[in-house]
Amino acid sequence: MSFEDELAEALRQAGDGFTPDRQALVARGERRGRTLVVRRRAAVIGGSVLGLALVGGAGAYAGGLLGGTGGAGGVRTADVAAPPALSSTPPPKGGVPGSGTGAVSDEQMVAWLRQLLPGGQLTEAKGHGTGSGPGGLTGASGVYDDGRGKAAIGVSLNRVDPKGASTAELLTCPDKNKFDYDGCTSETLSDGAKIMVYQGYEYPDRRVPTKSWRATLVTSQGYQVDVQEWNAAAEKGEPVSRPNPPLDPAQLKALALAPLWRPALEDLPAAHPETPRRDPYPGASAAPVLDGLLAGYGIPVVAKGGEGDSAYVVLDEGKGKSMVTVEVQSAEQHGGMGSLFANAAVMPDGTKVVTRQTPGEKGGKNVVWWNVDTLRTDGTRVIVSAFNSKNQESDATRRDPALTMAQLKEMATSEKWAQYGK
What we know:
Layout: H1 3-15, H2 22-27, H3 29-43, E1 44-45, E2 48-49, H4 106-116, E3 121-128, E4 138-145, E5 150-159, H5 165-170, E6 183-188, E7 194-201, E8 211-218, E9 223-230, H6 249-257, H7 262-267, H8 286-295, E10 301-307, E11 310-315, E12 322-329, E13 345-346, E14 352-359, E15 368-375, E16 381-387, H9 405-412
Antiparallel strand pairs: 1-2, 3-4, 4-5, 5-9, 6-7, 7-8, 8-9, 10-11, 11-12, 12-16, 13-14, 14-15, 15-16
């Protein structure tokens, strides 16, 4: 798969769960882009894609960490001096950042991965040491076989802003109402490090049965360790070889916490602090406005969520679940998108209105997407969508959405949005 194809797939997955409007996603691209940079670096190791998306103790000892002494050819514990436990080690004196000197080689990264795996064989192994400089990749990957089926596995190392918005997203479990996955736990350790373990699928709509499990650790110093595994010999294009990936959640967590990664992390250049995200509507929330607009229709709400300028509800009057979403944007967010409203209907107050009825875009069978997109004279854009399914990846549960196009238009053009954020 080419880099362009991989990036397109990454963008598709990153957009899952948000209002399914391509232009809306582009408008929020700055924040999502920062997240994608982090995920992209975690995703590409050794020329293969390691994918995008907590049990056990907080510390870990390198030797026999996962109940074994390493795969064939693995480094023995005595061969490597184990640094202190990763999550609890203070930063270097003076806070001197690493510089990517290449102190850790490609071969060493592979050797450490082999050592930390619980027996079995690691083949097709590839590594990237710390000499790539800013923006380079550091990690190791291969095909692991513990006798129960081959499985792709990899680890990537990075330095991030531990207080950044994109980092927070990486460590937050997805909304269960909007994503179908098997399990996720997120935990803050006693020293401030945060770790998330996610048990999901390569494709959210489960078009293939390939599972993708991941552990992501970020310490208070900004050290990021991302471990990902599959129940197939490759992320994509290979048949499932086993029911689940080889490492359970506790083992994934332990591998991420392994102190062997510390020398490589310390040699990486420190991350630049993220630019604080500017909120065009400070303190505003779309959720209560959406709730108020829906109250007049008397349709039971069975689930809800969202934050800031995006919100959703799931309606069900006994005919099947139907998701309704809203997103509010400022002129700054959707700048340059005026062409979308070139042929729009114009209301007496000057609000431009575009309506769309199209098939769903994210894999659910027989899903339809009804959408009303509005642009007010002050530049505020309100997008209201409805689906005939509980979320965008799930199959349709009814013929049409719970709301009519007339109701969606009434909501999107409501005067309640005129005072939004003011």
